Every structure is written in C-alpha cells, then in structure tokens.
Amino acid sequence: MASTWFITGTSSGFGRHMTELLLDRGDRVAATLRNPSRLDDLAAKHGDRLWRAQLDVTDTARMREVVDAAFAEFGRIDAVVSNAGYGLIGLAEELSDEQIERQIDTNVTAPIQLARAVTPHLRAQGGGRFLQTSSMGGHIVFPAMSLYHTSKWALEGFFETYALETERFGIRTTLIEPGMVATDFYSSADVAPSQLPAYAGTQAADLTHGKSSVALEDMPGDPRKVAEAMIRIGDLADPPRRQLLGSDAYRLVHDALKARLESAEAQYEFALTTDRDGFVPPQA
To answer: Is residue 148 a part of any domain in this protein?
Structure first.
C-alpha cells in the first residue's frame, strides 16, 4: 500500500534521493525546498504523486502554512522527514554573529518548529513517523565545527524529549545519525570569514581554511544507501529512537559513549558527596 511522505530539503542530498526512491516505488511525496523548479524532472515523470512547495525553513509562519496545505492536500501523511540543514565550519572565535544565528535558526529552530507544526495533524490521524536528520556529530565532536555540533546535540535533546511526549499518540520519532557521507556537505558548507593568527598551524585552523580535508573517495557513506535506510526506518512499525548509519558512525559513537560511561562510573563516589545528609540513593 502506498504511503505519503513530507520531506524538507529535497533539492539535493538525502532529501533528493529519498524523493526519487519513494516516487519510484509508487509513494506520494510532499517535497519542500527553496526552489521547487529543481524537481521539475520528477514532476514530469510522476505527476500529482509529487506535491511541491517553496519553503525557507527559517520562515516559521510559512512553514505552518505549507504543513497545513500538505495535510489538506493528501488527507494523511504517514512520515515526516526533517532533513533541511547545512554545515558551518570555523573556529568558535572566528565565526560571525550572523553565521551563528543562521546555523541555529536553520539546524535547530526550524526542525523544532516543524515538529510543532505537524504534531496536531499526526495526533489527529492517530500517529505517524517523524525522522530527524541528525549526525554522529550529535554524540562526538571535531575541531572547527563547534556550532554544527551545537545544533546536532540540541536536536538530540529536543527529539528524545519529544518522543517521550508524543509516543502515546502513535507518533514514533527516530534521530538519523549518519557518519561521513560522500555528498557536497563540505563543499557547500558555510566557512568562517577570518583567519586569526593565534590559531595558525592548529588542526582546527587547517580544517577551517582548507589545508586539511577528507576527500569524497575516503568517505565511507553512500548517500543513496543512506536514503534507502531512512525509508526502511520510516516503514518500520517499531522504529528505533536513534539509528547510526555508517561504519565510522558506529565505531566513533560507540567509543565515545564507552569512554563517557567509564568516566561517569569513576565519578560515582565523588558525586554522592553532594547528597543531603541521611539521603539513601536508590539501588541500581
């Protein structure tokens, strides 16, 4: 039976691949992007199974209008994919105020507002899927990507809470956490405008200013396979709340979580020193 999907950021990358794959298997897609004409080829091929809307996800009022229009058009939407976002590369001290605001507006505020906009519709229809594109960068960090990591760590916290609040309505949420994928992520990323001499020669400065980078052929992830995996997750009756994608994502996040747990366990006795006198902690 055909499903209906709502996807943001469909002009390229995972969003474009998902749209193509879903239409090819007979599903319907409500696709949003800044320039709908970039999907003219798919519209010509698939007709009214592709519904398009112009959307800058940082425009919350427009977001609500588009969401309402999509649900009105299709009646039911089975899966919502919050995919729009971009990378910001630069030392924290070098970034401009405008770059910081735009990163948070696009990568954090927009997904939150999308979730808020679709929730009444999903609840009214008895549930649905919500997939949020996150990253292994929501668990680990690299230098020169402080604001990008900030955005992904924020999404992890919001959507884990959102899942707890909305699962009672049949809304199942999954954070998609890819590793390095051979897309235009780095070539299309925003980059800090200045180069501070104090950081010259550091790994962070080299990453920011192109002296050190990872070639596409060295990235393990295949963007089309990531899109296929996201569709499989969206089809699941009992999807995970988080899904790592890629051998690098699994290895790096596994090692980071293991180290974090070991550090927490080593702090147990010290942590107890701040309890009230006479308080007995529950036994594990």
So the answer is: yes
Residue type (1 letter), 46 = H
Into how many domains does the chain fold? 1
Query: What's this model's pTM, rounded to 2 decimal places?
Result: 0.94
Taking alpha carbons only, the member of 152, 70, 82, 76 closest to residue 116 is 82
| Residue 116 falls inside a structural domain | yes
Is position 250 annotated as part of the catalytic site?
A: no
Q: How far is CA 273 from the centre of its chain?
A: 39
Please provide the average confidence, as pLDDT, over all residues in the chain.
95
Q: What does each C-alpha distance from 269 to 69, 264, 272 come to in angstroms? A: 56, 10, 5
Domain membership flag for residue 208 = yes
Tokens of 57: 């996800």
What pLDDT score does 98 carry?
A: 97
Residue in 148, 162, 186, 250 annotated catalytic:
148
Q: Establish if 155 belongs to a structural domain.
A: yes
By DSSP bridging, strand 79-82 and strand 190-191 are unpaired
157 class by beta-carbon count within 10 Å (0-12 exposed, 13-18 middle, 19+ buried) = exposed
In this structure, the dihedral spanned by the alpha carbons of residues 182, 157, 130 and 142, taken in order and rounded to 10 degrees, is 0
Q: Print the domain residue range for 70.
A: 4-248
